[in-house]
Specification:
467 residues; alpha/beta; Glutaconate Coenzyme A-transferase; 2 domains; seven-stranded mixed beta sheet; 16 helices; 27 strands
Length: 467
Amino acid sequence: MYKDEYDKKLISAEEAAGLVEDGMWIELGGAVNTALIIDKYLAKRKDEFTEVKVGTFIDISSYEMLRVDPDREIFKWTSGFLLAPVRECSRNLGVCVFKPNLYHDVPRIAREVFKDKIDIVFLPVTPMDKNGYFNFGLTCSHLKALAESAKKVVLIVKEDMPWIYGGYDEIIHISEADYIVEDKEFPTPFLPFTMPPNEEDKMIAENIFEAGLLEDGMTVQVGIGGMPDSVVKIMKESGVKDLGIHTEMMGDGILELINEGIVTNNNKKLDKGKSVFTFTMGTKNLYEYLDRNPSVATYPVDYTNDPFIISQQPKMFSINGAAQIDLMGQVNSEQMGLRTPTCKLFQVSGTGGQLDFVMGCLFSRDRKGKSILGLYSTYKGDSRILPVLDKGAAVTVPRSMTQYVVTEWGVAYLRGYSVKERALALIRLAHPDHRDWLVEEARKVGIFPPNYNPPAGKPENVLFARD
């Protein structure tokens, strides 16, 4: 029925890249739904432009445009969440490449702030079904919002993209597209199943268990990496059962819990019986599981990451990584500050959904939400627990919202406690080599009185500590 319309809108990738004119703003999608084929052909046209604004998010792939224009003189790149391919831009050029946003707010920003300002969006999708619909597959996020906000929509059809059932905004109709490209050059990216946990990751997961933070019937949000993988492993070993999944990212670790029968989704208040997420990255095994599976649902990020929605899930359990925390409980998970006179600001990643889930747990309807922020106590010998955050460092989570903090040395609970009580607990979570230094610095900056000496023993808000 829709074949004639499809054929009329079908163009080559080179022709699609040819739609871009000097001075335009284009969006290439993000995560595994990034239009790398357009990146390839636009890079070849570099000398035809004086400036093209390029937007992405969750940058897992290298970009040809950045290779041919590493200083962003032509392609003015910005990203909502930096990973390695764009992180070097920040290292070299500063934080101008980053777009600070709460992840759950991004669809509204697209529709309300940037409506008709984006010239072209290039969005990878599944092949069209008999009803004229394409599915966004592995990345729902805010792709439909981008399509609704742009002047022109180009769909990049990928034969290997899984079709994932969803709640809403997971599909787009051919009538909403201006052009279609069939991408036979770039397979949908896989990610390795595991980033091998190190000893600190394992200790952090064990500390969470020892502190009694795992229980039956939790609704879980967990990401990817050594620390989340270790937490998944400890969940399997602990014997918890009847877990639900309401997460930003679906990974292979969660699939392990599902395959073990630990995840049932039976206790969820919303989307009962379904594992919910907004994007996914992982192995072929994960993608095959998700393809047309009625037990999962992908939603736009303004649903999955909405603190109001998160707060309705029973026993919400969220774990995210942090880069630094100061003795007042301010958490930096994204932007390094001016530690030395020769430093410049460096965007490491982004706010992502961390604060969304922190707020969702904090406001939980059943008063049983747990927001856990994990970090290693040191990096290259320096303490990641600081007296105060470095000048210019981002505050990803304000001290008033920080709940549980865990390092390889223990677990602390900060909510409701005074600055002094927080500082005492966090010093206990620091590496032993840095604890005396933190006490001295706390006196200097006014966190402790000038002659204050911390009492011996474990502070009451340290739930578990290693000797």
